[in-house]
Design goal:
Distance between the termini: 66 Å
Number of strands: 0
Largest sheet: none
Helix content: over 70%
Strand content: under 5%
């Protein structure tokens, strides 16, 4: 029977610790953290709030730290998995630069500190949403769903989709339909994004004992679901135009990039074997990141730099 003491014991590869500052920074998953900050900023800007920029910046910092804390605790829990996967084996814990106990303490301190600070800086609705996001990602997803169900990415994607909602709550004290729509866009985007990578890395996920969809339902079923989610995603991503907070530029960017996303999903569906299938999956994986960035960058430009131009026929 596994006890808390056993859980906190680092894996053999992680004994010793003595990590440098850059190792602790790597625990925060800085690339993921930067995406969280970006989408949270867009959530702050889609609804005019009149909040002081220093207050908004401080709130963004706490959201970033909370996201980093989630990543740190995820790495602590998944150290055994990370050690057997090529793309993660050089992370600080499996590489032996930081112990599991050090990562757990670091992540826990940052989690508590970021939530309390956001509550004091902004409001307790935003702090509560940040706390929920951390608990959802670490406990429900990392400790539970990730190793139990092939739908782990679908359900766990809710944590990655919440930053725009938290950002809006931080500057307005409430949550509006616009950021709920942004939440849904990220939520529906997540499965085709990660399943494209899972098609290529299914062997590694299998060795690590993670029930990703290609390993459980098979690659053909995964390709069908990637296409189905993309067919849902592309029109959903254009809904800000119909709701009035996405302008003409957003419509153009969303339509063109959405067509590219759909074309690549069809390519993944058609090319099912060998190197051609893997290349198609990795093309979709890479483009999906660009697609999401383009959508949110366009919203940011429209609302932050006065570039918003309503689509006339939407309000005719």
């Amino acid at each position: 029977m596994t006890t808390l003491t056993d859980t906190l014991t680092p894996p053999p590869a992680a004994l010793g610790g003595a990590g440098e500052v850059r190792d602790y920074f790597a625990l925060l998953k800085p690339r993921v953290m930067s995406l969280v900050v970006f989408t949270a900023l867009v959530g702050m800007l889609v609804t005019p709030s009149g909040v002081h920029p220093v207050l908004a910046a401080a709130s963004l910092l706490m959201i970033a730290i909370g996201a980093g804390a989630s990543g740190c605790l995820n790495m602590w829990w998944d150290a055994d998995i990370d050690a057997v996967m090529t793309r993660t084996r050089t992370r600080p814990i499996p590489a032996g630069r930081i112990t599991g106990g050090e990562a757990f303490s670091f992540g826990t301190a940052l989690s508590i500190g970021s939530v309390l600070a956001l509550g004091l800086i902004a409001n307790w609705l935003a702090a509560g949403l940040l706390a929920f996001t951390i608990l959802f990602y670490v406990v429900l997803y990392s400790m539970g769903l990730k190793r139990l169900t092939a739908q782990n990415i679908v359900i766990g994607g809710a944590a990655g989709a919440l930053p725009p909602v938290i950002g809006q709550a931080a500057v307005t004290g409430t949550v509006h339909l616009d950021t709920i729509v942004l939440f849904l866009i990220i939520f529906v985007w997540t499965p085709p994004h990660f399943w494209a990578l899972a098609l290529v890395k299914s062997g590694e996920y299998g060795r690590a004992g993670i029930p990703m969809l290609p390993n459980v339902a098979g690659p053909d079923s995964t390709r069908r679901q990637i296409l189905a989610y993309t067919l849902l995603l592309v029109p959903l991503a254009l809904s800000p135009v119909w709701l009035g907070f996405g302008g003409l530029a957003y419509l153009v960017v969303g339509a063109i990039s959405g067509a590219g996303m759909l074309a690549l999903a069809v390519k993944v569906f058609v090319r099912r074997t060998g190197d051609a299938g893997n290349r198609a999956a990795m093309e979709l994986f890479g483009f999906s990141i660009l697609y999401l960035l383009l959508l949110f960058a366009t919203l940011l430009a429209e609302h932050a730099f006065g570039l918003f131009r309503a689509v006339p026929w939407v309000f005719a």
